[in-house]
Amino acid sequence: MSRFLFSFSALKLAAFFAVILAAFFAAGPAQAREMEDMNVVVVRSIDKLSARTHTFDIPVDRTVQFGKSLFIKVRACRKSPPVGEPESAAFLQIWERKPHEDTSRWVFSGWMFASNPALSAMDHPVYDVWVIDCKKSVTSAKSETYSSEAAPSEAAPAAADPAAATSDTDALDTEASPEE
Question: Considering the domain boundaries, does residue 179 fall inside one?
Answer without folding.
Answer: no
